Amino acid sequence: MKGFYALLAAVAVIGGGALWYGSRSRPAPPPAQSAPPPPAADGFRGYTLGSDAARIEVTEYSDFECPFCASFAAVQMPVIREQLIATGRVRWRYRDFPLPVHQYSRYAALAAQCAGEQGKFWEMHDQLFQHHEWAQTGKNPRSLFRGFAASVGLDLEKYDACLDGQRYAGRIQASLEEGQRAGVQGTPTFFVNGKRFDGRAASDGFKTVVDSLTRTRK
Fold first, then answer.
1. Phi then psi for 80, rounded to 5 degrees?
2. CA dihedral 187, 192, 193, 196 (to 10 degrees)
3. What digits encode the pLDDT tens for the residues 28-67?
4. Which of 42, 56, 96, 124 has the fewest Cβ atoms within 10 Å of its own Cβ atom?
5. Per-residue pLDDT tens digits for 193-213
């Protein structure tokens, strides 16, 4: 029996050591939040593309971890930018709507907001969506996001301080709550001049509704 208990003790020690090593070898997760942060008080309404004089505004509620959002950003958005935004017909407003089922959606939104602090929101937006494999791995994307930050020319010390301090967590929460009040339940969801867009979420669908609104206003 003494030999049996000695064996059990050895297994326990080895198992405990393995668990300790595993916890030490895994990268630390992004800062966890036990409760949603308070809404931002700065009145921020989202980053925009296009002319302030555009008579039509599209508001997009999106989640950086959402595969449908990534597909829209990669396939449809370049055409929309060329045909509707660059021509002065549409102003595009991006609003964060991180879904609770996505582990790193708020973290990605924070990375984009911290890039925005240095005038590079849309560049980080494109990196997060164009290299969307991070959303399928389930791995901590911190180092990958930092690589994106470097690739778009951010001051990494300022970026790290912003991200670690969750400087814009309240802003993201405010955007989420705004979307919830508007009836947003999934992503991407769009509003055209304040009215929910239920048409085809593609470049030709937006062109159709913009053409229709333009004719109406003449």
1. -60, -40
2. -60
3. 445 444 455 555 557 899 999 999 999 999 999 999 999 9
4. 42
5. 999 999 889 999 999 999 999
Residue 185 reports pLDDT greater than 80? yes
What tokens does 138 get? 């389930």
Q: Which amino acid is residue 136, in one-letter code?
A: Q
Q: DSSP per residue over 89-100, as a string?
A: SEEEEEEE---T
Contacts of 21-30 with C-beta under 8 Å, sequence gap 24+, read 26/140, 27/139, 27/140, 27/142, 27/143, 28/140, 28/142, 29/140, 30/104, 30/106, 30/107, 30/140, 30/142
**pLDDT tens, residue by residue, 14-33:** 343 333 323 223 334 454 44
Does 100 have pLDDT greater than 70?
yes
Q: How far apart are CA 8 and CA 193, in angstroms?
A: 69
CB-based burial of residue 108 (10 Å sphere; 0-12 exposed, 13-18 middle, 19+ buried)? buried
- The DSSP call for residue 72 is I
DSSP 9-60: HHHHHHHHHHHHHHHHHSPPPSPP-SSPPPPPSS----EEES-TT-SEEEEE
Sign of the Cα pseudo-torsion (29, 34, 35, 38, in order): negative
